[in-house]
Amino acid sequence: MKQEKELLHVRKRFYSFYFLFFFGYGAFYPLLSVYLKDAVHLSGGQIGLILSISPVVMIFIQPVWGIMSDLTRKPTVLLTMALLLTALFAFLFSLFKSYEWLLLAMIFLAAFQSAIVPLSDSIAVSFSEKSKIPYGSIRLWGALGFAAAVFVMGRLAEIFHLSVIFYTFTLFLIASALFAHRLPKENKAMKVDLKSGIKELFKIRKYLIFLLAAFLMMGPTLAHNIYFGIYINEIGGTLAGVGIAFLVAAGSEAPFMKAANRLIQRFGIERVLLFAVLISSLRWLFYYIMPSLPFVYATCIVQGFSIGLFIPAALQYVRKLAPGHLGATAISLYTAVGNGFGNWFCTFAGGLIYERYSALSVYLFFGVLSSLSFLLFVMINTFSKKTAAVQSSVSS
C-alpha cells in the first residue's frame, strides 16, 4: 500500500513537470517570431537566423549533456540546473533589442534548453520500464500543457504585450524545476557509438533514403511552429487566432499517437509513414493558396494525421531498419538529421524567403520539400514490396 502511494506521488510529479514545462514552451516559441517581427522589427533573414540557432546548438550540445549525465549519474540535478538557466536567459532575452545581443542570448538559451527534453525523457523512460506505466501516458501531459498555453497566450498577448511570452516562459520553467528536482534520481544511460556504427548504418540503403525523407518531412513541420504566427497575421488573423490554431493542432496529435500502433499493425509501418507525409505535403501547399481563415483553422486538425502518426511510426521504423546493436545510434542520427539539420535549414531558409517574398511563399517551400519526402517514401515502399516478393519466391 505504501509503495502504491509513493508510485502515485511520483506519477503526479511527472505529470506536473511535463505540463508546466511544455506550457512554458508553448507560451514562448509559437509567438517568438511574431515578437521579433512586430516588437523588435527585425528582418525576415534576421528572424530566421536567430530562430535557426536552437536546432544547430542542439546537435552539438545534447551529447555533452548526455555524457555529463552518464558521468555524474545525477540527471535530476542537471535537469533542474538546465531549467533554471534556460529561464534566466529567456528573461535576459526580453531585455535586449539589438540583433547582435538577441543572437548571443539565443545561443545560451538554446545551449541549456537542449538538455531539458532528453534528460527528462531519459528519466521518464527509466521510470516507465520499472513501474510498467506507459511512457505515453506520462508524456501526454506535455501535449496538454502545450495546447493549453498556445490557446491562453494568444489572448494574453493581445490584452497586454507580446513580451508577456518571456515572463510566462520564465515563471513556468522555474515552477517545473521544483518538480524536476523531486523526480527519480536515476536514468537509463544510452550508449551511442557513432564512430563504429555510422559506417555500418550508411551501408543500409533504405536507412539512408529514410534519413533524407525525414530531413524533408521534419524540417518543414518544426519550422512551421516558428512561421505559423506570422502567416496567420499576414492573412488577417489575430494573436488569439494563432492560439486557437495551435490548440487544435497540438490537441489533435494525442489520439493519433495513441492509435499509431493499431494502424501500423493493420496497414504496415511504411504505408502509415507514406500517408502521414502526404497529409503534411497537402497541408503546406493548401496554405500557399491563401485560403480563408476558417479553413486554415479547420485544417489544423490534420496535424494529428501527419505528425501524430509520423513520430511514433518513424521511431519504430528506425528500430526496424537498424541492427539491434545499432538501435541507439540509428535513432540519434535520425534525430540529428530530422529535428536538428532539417529544422535549422527550413527555419533559416524560411526567414530568407519570407524577407524577399511572403509567408505564403514560405509554405510553398515547405510544401515542395514535403512532396519530395513523399516521393522518397514511395521509393521506400516500392523497394520493400520488391524485396518481399523476391524473398517470397525464394522461400517457395
TrEMBL record:
Q: State the source organism's domain of life.
A: Bacteria
Q: Which InterPro entries does this UniProt record tie to the protein?
A: MFS_assoc_dom, MFS_dom, MFS_trans_sf
Q: State the membrane topology.
A: Multi-pass membrane protein
Q: Which UniProt keywords apply?
A: Cell membrane, Membrane, Transmembrane, Transmembrane helix, Transport
Report the subcellular localization: Cell membrane
Q: What residues does the Major facilitator superfamily (MFS) profile domain cover?
A: 10-385
Annotated membrane-spanning segments are 15-35, 47-65, 77-95, 101-119, 140-158, 164-183, 204-222, 228-251, 272-289, 295-318, 330-354, 360-380
- State the name under which the record lists this protein: MFS transporter
